[in-house]
Amino acid sequence: MSDNFFRHYFKMEDFVLNQYPYPAFEAQQSLKISLVLIVITGGIYIFFWKRKQKRILNAWVGRNEFRFGKGFLLTIVTLGFYFFYQEYKMGQVINEIERKNGLRVKSNFPLVCFIVGPIIARFIQQRHINEFYIKRSDA
């Protein structure tokens, strides 16, 4: 039974070195579970989720584009406006990653992330991050 459990939740190809810049089993996340965690924690989980997404995007682009501490401090100083700017920048980086990996790119995606705000943007961005790890038959 434990062997089936392992195979179900962790695919062996996820453990191959250098397959992805960030491990799939850590990066992929259920949107439903995330919603439950946000509700249970009264919204605090959003900050942990955002930090994780920043690490994933930094790994995929190969540079330190996002720093959680700096973003958190600037968000407080700007009374929350920087949070929206970060969503726009994260959308741009997601587009860059999708372009480099032959995925479909939506040119207005950064603007959508900015307009919908930080909470909804988390879900949209996570859906795109999850798509980074989908095996393509033509790849």
Verbal overview:
The chain is mostly helical and 139 residues long. The protein has one domain. 65% of the residues lie in helices and 0% in strands. The termini are far apart.
What's the short version?
With 139 residues, this protein is mainly alpha-helical. 65% of the residues lie in helices and 0% in strands.
Write the layout of secondary structure elements.
Blueprint: H1 2-9, H2 24-27, H3 31-40, H4 45-61, H5 68-77, H6 81-100, H7 109-116, H8 118-131
Helix pairs in contact: 4-6, 4-8, 5-6, 6-7, 6-8, 7-8
Features:
globular; 8 helices; mainly alpha; 0% strand; 139 residues
Class by helix and strand content? mainly alpha
Average pLDDT, rounded to a whole number, is 84
Distance between the termini: 33 Å
Radius of gyration from CA coordinates: 16 Å
- As residue ranges, the low-confidence spans are 5-10, 12-18
Number of domains: 1
The total of helices stands at 8
Broad shape: globular
Strand proportion, as a percent range, falls in under 5%
Q: How is the main sheet built?
A: none
Helical content stands at: 55-70%
What letter string, H or E per element, gives the SSE order? HHHHHHHH
How many β strands by DSSP? 0
